Amino acid sequence: MEQAGKFSENTTLLEKSLAGDERATEQLLINNTPLVRSIATRFVGRGTDLEDLMQIGCLGLVKAIRTFDPARGCAFSTYAVPLIFGEIRRHLRDDGFLKVSRTQKRLAARLCAEKEAMTKEGLEPRVEELAARCGVSREEAVFALDAVAPVRSLSETLWGDEDSPTLDDALSDPDEEERTFDRLALSMSIDKLPPLRRKIILLRYYRDLSQQQTADLLGLTQVKVSREEKRILAFLREEMT
């Protein structure tokens, strides 16, 4: 009920904002500040303070408010997420703030060494497995590896020859962008779930376990898992519409 109320309020404020109501725009910014913060925290440790990242992210939020089209048929937050991400990434890239701390460099080196060792063993290591071997969280591993990843130009060709498509061509597919936005929105919606429900989602939909297998691992009954799954899916549908 609370989420539905927030969605309804956003819709009303968006209509007023698009009609030129500055107070509605200000209230939209206030209402969606937690969304900006959740995204901005993912870039902490890259040379820019959280509050500065928040201000930059809010520029993306303003762009989302000004360009949102209700006819798209998606939730405002779904539309706003990639614009906020994009604004922060553009700032870090263009202003040369992609500074990598020694801690992140050391962690990235450890992760790469573990990846090489596992590959030699004939394994195909996932980020979760590398993180576990290094005693860090998946998020810490992702940030460390991303921080030391080389910057690539959008004009760079995919296969090294002049006739092959560029990275820009590959990234400009609108259907792929829509899928990317949906994945981002889904990921952020799942993050709002309580720990138990996140575990159920992980086991059922990422590890493809049955309800009974999930119940056995979590010490629950199959009926309990089934009920929780229905509540989870109802919540996610509401978040994504």
Instruction: Find the count of extended strands (DSSP E, 2+ residues).
Output: 0
CATH architecture assignment of the largest domain: Up-down Bundle
Q: Roughly what percent helix?
A: over 70%
N-to-C span: 14 Å
**SSE series:** HHHHHHHHHHHHH
Question: Overall 3D geometry?
Answer: flat
* Proportion of residues in extended strands: under 5%
Walk me through this protein's architecture:
This protein is an all-alpha fold and 241 residues long. It is built from 13 helices and no strands. It has helices at 2-18, 22-31, 33-40, 50-67, 76-94, 102-120, 127-134, 138-147, 167-171, 174-191, 195-206, 211-218, 222-240. The longest helix has 19 residues, at 76-94. Residues 1-5 and 170-174 have low confidence and may be disordered.
What is the element layout, followed by pairings?
Layout: H1 2-18, H2 22-31, H3 33-40, H4 50-67, H5 76-94, H6 102-120, H7 127-134, H8 138-147, H9 167-171, H10 174-191, H11 195-206, H12 211-218, H13 222-240
Question: Briefly, what is this?
Answer:
By secondary structure, the chain is mostly helical.
Overview features:
241 residues; mainly alpha; Four Helix Bundle (Hemerythrin (Met), subunit A); Arc Repressor Mutant, subunit A; 13 helices; disordered N terminus
